[in-house]
Amino acid sequence: MLKPENCVKRVVLAYSGGLDTSIILKWLQTTYGCEVVTFTADLGQGEELEPARQKAELLGIKPENIFIEDLREEFVRDYVFPMFRANAQYEGLYLLGTSIARPLISKRQIEIAREVGADAVCHGATGKGNDQVRFELAYYALEPDIKVIAPWREWNLTSRTALIDFAEKHQIPISKDKRGESPFSTDANLLHTSSEGKVLEDPAQETPDYVYSRSVDPEQAPDKATYISIDFESGDPVAIDGERLSPAQLLTRLNELGRINGVGRLDLVENRFVGMKSRGMYETPGGTILYFAHRGIESITLDRGAAHLKDELMPKYAELIYNGFWFSPERELLQGLIDKSQEKVCGRVRVKLYKGNVAVVGRESAYSLYDQDLVTFEEGAVAYDHRDAAGFIKLNALRLRTLAKRERKLSKI
């Protein structure tokens, strides 16, 4: 038992119902001697969550202290869609599927802590990963004086054998597949599935086929292309093939379309915020389609200056999300600018899906800035005078000509 100065009376645990968080639950009870409240969030990970309730009850948690909540609509509407308005990609490739889930889990965890009068929150992230940073930055941003318990940084259960021994000692049920070393670890939500560790740790080796879980092999995808249309309003997708859908329904539909066409696989070596490189395999079928479609509608509705400024700011915005600063003032400032740019990003994009590829093949909007009379090669366009280009070019070349004259002069000395 911990000393009185470290006393915790009640803690809200981010609880999946799996072996690791079940061990954490019992460890909290035995180490801190505190009351544990479990919180399980449904973010579309595709798992039945009722077993989490049953496991928590089996471990002595009162029914009124078990929170299982469907947050799929809030997740897509208030986190995924705002991020996609920015076309956010970390290090130019990663669509931030794990990163964007952490702020919502943290926010709801803090809200529950307030509701039940808890004085601490707990997560199951390891001491080497990014998630510990993401969870805790969010906790402190929302509740600056909250106590945070991170078991993987505190306990001495440093091996799989030690974890299994602890579980057996405290009569925590262990499924057969958990007794051996898992070949890799996964994290999933409605936006993506990530896999890393073990068999994926050597970046020189190709990802084994059995790692993939939510997309068919592009080589085995249909030989006929799939065409769909996506309607946008203020930068957000609202309909597929003319059918209006809620945010979670829309992303679910895109996931299925992406899955059968082998869309959204990414093998990536990334730079973690904590300082090391890691290799992961990501599957983001619906998000990949949405990314290209959103860029497609922006291409005809955003002014060049606004579009280029967004592209300049995007790496910073993506890095803030990756590093866990969703609830920071700088992310909120950038979000305001991004959302302002999206006011007239409305219209329809036609997309072609074929064997892992996503291609924008058509775009139309009532707010389109594309003027065919300006760009046509045919004669008769009156809105553009070719002769105006001569002065434009000379003015832009002035500094280049001045530099060239200086270099010529210096070469003769």
What does this structure look like?
The chain starts with 9 loop residues before the first strand and ends with a helix. It folds into three domains: 153 residues, 3-Layer(aba) Sandwich (Rossmann fold), CATH 3.40.50; 179 residues, Argininosuccinate synthetase, chain A, domain 2 (Alpha-Beta Complex), CATH 3.90.1260; 35 residues, no CATH class. The strands form three sheets. It has a five-stranded parallel β-sheet with strand order 3-2-1-4-5, sandwiched between helices. The chain has a five-stranded antiparallel β-sheet with strand order 10-9-8-13-14. It has a four-stranded antiparallel β-sheet with strand order 6-7-12-11, with no helix packed on it. 35% of the residues are buried. By secondary structure, it is of the alpha/beta class. The protein is elongated.
